[in-house]
Write a structure and sequence with these properties.
Layout lengths: L7 H15 L8 H9 L3 H5 L4 H30 L6 H20 L12 H22 L7 H19 L23 H31 L4 H24 L1 H11 L3 H21 L1 H7 L9
Helix pairs in contact: 1-8, 1-9, 2-4, 4-8, 4-9, 5-7, 5-8, 5-11, 6-7, 7-11, 8-9, 9-10
């Protein structure tokens, strides 16, 4: 039986990833600001439940905007994935260590770094060393029959090399947590503006939620059809969008909620990092295929 990235487990994981993206420290604290943008109301007006209909309608179109962008990302990932399905093992060896590195970044393991600054040429050498350790084992072992400990050792070695080079400040992974804020400023609320703001949110904040989103894009790339890849990103958008809609429905209380969970945001980030590292190990070892055998297979009739 052919196992792809489109299973019940992948669908559930996509939704959970969307929830974790909403709970990330760079999204949740700014929810009240987005409620104000899409409704044109002040904080005081939102707290007093004034114009609740405008808030809900605006946030729904905001969600539709970023959902469209994410679904198109899923279509692109799936289309590229059609060329990689015949080499899924190689894809796993590439994506596994990279997802593990994304997870390490979310855990804060790359925050420790020497203060010494190196020249551009030295930094280039650092990236060459990293790419050498990333690519060479793929060329040597990924297409051969090897023990499961080989990909585990490979992922561990690449992650360790990445950490050492980052600590020496020869390379850095700051771009993983880089927050590119694409903001649309407006004092009026209309559906088109809310929709555009949602699209801007998806494009501008992708670097911030990128580590989590990248894991779902890998699953989309391993789907058999374009529609399956798009569906996984639609489910991811629902995981991210449902809390936004609930925030619009309970807009008057969202401020108290955010204040109450502010201390838990780091915990959500740690959970996301651990999940990404686990997904990286599963992809590199091929164990994700074994897990897929134990889950119901859901195929779209498209």
């Amino acid at each position: 039986m052919e196992i792809t990235g489109f299973t019940i487990g992948a669908v559930v994981l996509s939704f959970v990833a969307g929830l974790l993206s909403f709970l990330s420290p760079c999204v949740l604290p700014l929810v009240p600001a987005y409620l104000g943008y899409v409704s044109g109301l002040s904080v005081a007006e939102i707290k007093s439940s004034k114009g609740s209909g405008r808030v809900i309608t605006g946030i729904v179109f905001f969600v539709l905007g970023f959902s469209l962008v994410f679904v198109l990302m899923g279509a692109t990932a799936s289309a590229v994935g059609q060329f990689l399905l015949s080499n899924k093992r190689v894809l796993g060896w590439i994506a596994g260590p990279l997802l593990a590195i994304f997870g390490m970044a979310l855990l804060g393991l790359f925050n420790y770094r020497m203060e010494r600054e190196w020249g551009r040429a030295v930094r280039l050498v650092g990236w060459v060393i990293f790419l050498f350790f990333l690519i060479t084992p793929i060329a040597l072992f990924s297409t051969k029959a090897v023990s499961v400990w080989v990909p585990i050792g490979y992922l561990t070695a690449v992650s360790l090399v990445a950490w050492v080079l980052n600590y020496l400040n020869l390379i850095n992974f700051d771009f993983i947590n880089y927050e590119a804020k694409a903001e649309v400023h407006t004092n009026t609320a209309n559906l088109f503006v809310s929709f555009v703001m949602g699209a801007a949110f998806a494009l501008g904040w992708t670097p911030c939620i990128g580590p989590i989103l990248s894991g779902i894009l890998v699953l989309a790339a391993s789907s058999e059809t374009l529609w399956q890849g798009m569906f996984l990103l639609l489910v991811y958008s629902m995981g991210l969008g449902v809390p936004f809609v609930l925030a619009g429905v309970f807009a008057a209380k969202i401020f108290d909620f955010i204040r109450s969970v502010r201390g838990l945001l780091r915990g959500f980030e740690i959970v996301s990092g651990i999940l990404l590292i686990a997904l990286g190990v599963l992809l590199a070892t091929g164990w994700i295929q074994q897990i897929a055998y134990m889950l119901p297979q859901w195929e779209l009739p498209l």
